[in-house]
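Q: C-alpha cells for this one, please.
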Amino acid sequence: MIESPVEAPAGVSRRAVLAAGAGVAGVVAVGVVAGVQLVTRALPLDGLVLAGMVGQTFVDTATGTHLTLESVDGLAGETVAAERFSLLFLAADDLPEAIRTLRHPDGDLLVYLGPVTADPRVLEAVVNRTGGAA
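A: Here is the predicted structure, written as C-alpha cells:
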C-alpha cells in the first residue's frame, strides 16, 4: 500500500494552527479569570421557574435599563403554570413596547414587553404556550 503525503493549504503551517488554538484557549482562560461571561445561557420561559425570581433585577440589553420582576401571575385568574402566565416588570426608565432581551446573572430572558398602565415603566409579558385562548 502506497501512502501519499497530505499537503497543507498554502500559507498554513502546523505552527500557525497550534498558535491559533493556543490563542483561543488563552482568551477563554482570561475571560474566566476576569469574570467575563463569554457565552450567555437562556433562562427557561417557564412560569414556575420565573416565579422564584420575583423581586430580582434584570437589565435590558438594548438600553441598559434596570427592570425588577414584580410578579408572576396566572392568566384569567388561574394559578401560575409553566406554559401559561404573565410577568409584570417595573422599569427604572420609560420603555416602549418591544421584543427585549433581559439579562440576569442566571441567564437571558427573551420576551415581548409592553406597557400595561398609564405609567410606561410598568411592563407586562404574557406567555400562553397551551394553544388555548388567554
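A few notes: The chain has a mean pLDDT of 84. The chain has two helices and six strands.
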